[in-house]
Design a protein that fits this description.
This protein is mainly alpha-helical. The chain is about 90% helix and about 0% strand.
């Protein structure tokens, strides 16, 4: 599958998890924590494949690519910081939902910029075959991560 289609699929899935979190009952702490755990896992693997496979190719093709990738990596670090803060909180902590809301807003902002700017650069500069090859690499890394997660 085309790399951008795969990444957009990830984006949609994470946003659906945030939506499920929002819809969970006010005192559904166990469900909210399970959803957060899945959100965290999805974001970690997604960031990894972007930074190891997708972003380096964008960075190489233009000065504009280097600039937008630098900003995207900075946003990943901000997301990681929020995840670190949330990881220290129990699901019934009053700050848990506030921090998760901040994470959701940061992720939504990142997705909007990435799909508008980075994906445009990729579409303009890579052939369909190049995008498919990146997609195959992304799928392989994600499959390995899934195997590791099941084995743990």
């Amino acid at each position: 599958m085309d790399a951008m289609k795969l990444l957009k699929k990830d984006h949609s899935y994470v946003l659906s998890l945030f939506n499920k979190f929002d819809q969970a009952g006010r005192n559904s702490f166990a469900r909210k924590f399970r959803l957060y755990d899945e959100i965290r896992s999805e974001l970690e693997v997604h960031s990894h494949v972007e930074e190891e496979i997708f972003y380096p190719t964008i960075r190489e093709i233009s000065p504009e690519g280097r600039k937008v990738i630098s900003e995207a990596v900075k946003e990943h670090k901000e997301i990681d910081t929020l995840i670190g803060q949330i990881d220290r909180l129990p699901a019934d902590d009053p700050n848990f939902e506030d921090r998760l809301q901040a994470l959701m807003e940061q992720v939504e902002h990142h997705i909007e910029e990435e799909e508008r700017e980075i994906f445009k650069i990729a579409e303009d500069n890579f052939s369909e075959e190049q995008r498919l090859e990146m997609g195959r690499k992304i799928e392989a890394v994600k499959a390995m991560h899934d195997r590791d997660r099941r084995a743990a």
